[in-house]
Design goal:
single chain; alpha/beta; Rossmann fold; globular; binds adenosine-5'-triphosphate
Length: about 240
């Protein structure tokens, strides 16, 4: 579904991603864990075409992405729920969801069904459908960001730190939603600092340290790995 080979991304003279090989197979939930500044967000941005590659290759569904600009990657089936949520603050919840569907050019009925599905997933969004997104709580904004990404009916969902800054109970809800999406067969690449929860939901995982993959394995293997325990699981 997704294959990265020797991917490098630079910001001027700083190389943030230094040759990453990574694969996400159909139906898998794969997580990337790593400390602040390890390059996790940069990697996701490169996958959706928001940062250019300084080297290497990215393929989605076997198709090389080099010549596919960001706005066309939705057409390849890639959708991202960005870090910091990125909802449109001065649009309502419903308007944000409709914007997520814009690339589909589907019929009104199909879009209405997708909105209904998202309102069932996150009943909070139904309750607040006419509220401006900027006035939602952090947790509600996160739910909206995920639902908005799902409105494009992606084959591959990229989630950038969905738990960031949220209360433990809301984090539980978000991870429950990720589990449900996994059961529905959606392929997910999840970037997280909440290593324990992320590894718990993941089929496979990678550890990213200063732009390089230093460990990979099943979620279970990394949960049991002494290095991972010492560096990433201590505080949770
Ligand atoms: P966090 O969990 O803190 O978001 P991260 O693993 O997602 O961290 P990135 O945001 O990808 O890390 O950042 C990787 C490195 O690239 C950092 O050193 C960061 O300062 C740098 N960086 C990120 N974005 C830019 C930018 N637009 N311009 C210059 N440097 C950047």
């Amino acid at each position: 579904m997704l294959k990265l080979e020797s991917v490098r991304v630079s910001y001027g003279a700083i190389e943030a991603v230094k040759g990453v090989d990574l694969e996400v197979r159909q139906g898998e939930v794969v997580t990337i864990i790593g400390a602040n500044g390890a390059g996790k967000s940069t990697l996701l941005k490169a996958i959706c075409g928001l940062e250019p590659l300084a080297g290497g290759r990215i393929a989605v569904g076997g198709q090389d992405c080099a010549s596919v600009p960001a706005h066309k990657r939705v057409g390849l089936g890639v959708a991202m729920s960005p870090e910091g949520r990125g909802v449109f603050a001065d649009q309502t919840v419903l308007e944000n969801l409709m914007l997520g569907a814009y690339a589909r050019r589907s019929e009104t009925a199909a879009i209405a069904a997708a909105v209904e599905r998202e309102f069932t997933r996150f009943p909070r969004l139904r309750e607040r459908h006419s509220q401006l997104a900027g006035t939602l709580s952090g947790g509600e904004q996160q739910m909206l960001a995920i639902s908005r990404a799902l409105m494009s009916e992606p084959r591959l969902l990229l989630l950038d730190e969905p738990s960031l800054g949220l209360a433990p109970l809301i984090i539980k809800d978000i991870f429950a939603a990720i589990r449900e999406l996994r059961q529905s067969g959606l392929t997910i690449l999840l970037v997280e600092q909440m290593a324990k929860q992320a590894l718990g939901v993941a089929d496979r995982a990678y550890v990213l340290e200063t732009g390089r993959i230093t460990l990979e394995g099943s979620g279970r293997e990394l949960l049991d790995n002494p290095k991972v325990k010492a560096a990433y699981l201590g505080a949770h």
